[in-house]
Amino acid sequence: MDIAVLIKQVPDTYGERRLHETDWSLDRAATDAVIDEIDTRGVELALTLTEQHGGEVTAVTMGPDGATDALRKALAMGAAKAVHITDPALAGSDAVATSAVLAAALRQLDVDLIVTGNESTDGRSAAVPAMLAERLGLPAVTSVRALTVDGDTLTAERVVEGGWARIQAPLPAVVSVNEKIAEPRYPNFKGIMSAKKKPVTTLTLADLGVDADRVGAAGSATRAVDGAPRPPRTGGHTITDDGSAGAQAARYLIERKVL
């Protein structure tokens, strides 16, 4: 069972985040870049499935040259090889353009399952997995918290409003996972050293047959039209309990449209 896992290098959530005021895109140089934590959980699922059913895991990312570091983390965890899609024209691509490029790359891989994180911590659109499945003509099973495979069929527990649903789908398929899917393993020293020797294939837009005018900020279907920095944190609201603390708290929350 061969599996492709999509990973993304994102700004560290513990660092400072800023927007470019010219186009409201994320300033990725403002903090350290790391592999998105949700993607390590996707790698863990893929490794577990291949340990059970055989096959190998291929890590796939789209990003600048430095995104190779994120691939090396997946390789250190146990992925067999990696694919790095990189091209200057890709900068500023939205979810629509990103899904088109990833789909073009995945068509070159013969895999039984495509695993992604539910949403990235920098974009938060959660749109790419379903878009990818649509482009590839595959079933999409999103927000998965548990998954098993039996022959050519997967069975997943999908988180829905108010609970979860059991879903079955034929393989190949696209699956996006949430934070409950698995605890990612820590790479050991042997894994870290072997990751340096594992193959990383670099692909450009030309290699994929994707026109540059379909990607980047200019080729994207959406654009940010306005933005603002997060307001500074202020002191909390103090309520003195004179017997009406509950009413005061409720009024405060209602005024701020929390309730």
From TrEMBL:
Its cofactor is FAD. SMART domains: ETF (SM00893). Residues 23-212 form the Electron transfer flavoprotein alpha/beta-subunit N-terminal domain. It comes from the Bacteria. One of its GO terms (cellular component) is cytosol. GO terms for molecular function: electron transfer activity. Keywords: Electron transport, Transport. Signal peptide: none annotated. Residues 221-244 are annotated as: Disordered. Heterodimer of an alpha and a beta subunit. Belongs to the ETF beta-subunit/FixA family. PANTHER family: ELECTRON TRANSFER FLAVOPROTEIN BETA-SUBUNIT (PTHR21294), ELECTRON TRANSFER FLAVOPROTEIN SUBUNIT BETA (PTHR21294:SF8). The electron transfer flavoprotein serves as a specific electron acceptor for other dehydrogenases. It transfers the electrons to the main respiratory chain via ETF-ubiquinone oxidoreductase (ETF dehydrogenase). This is Electron transfer flavoprotein subunit beta.
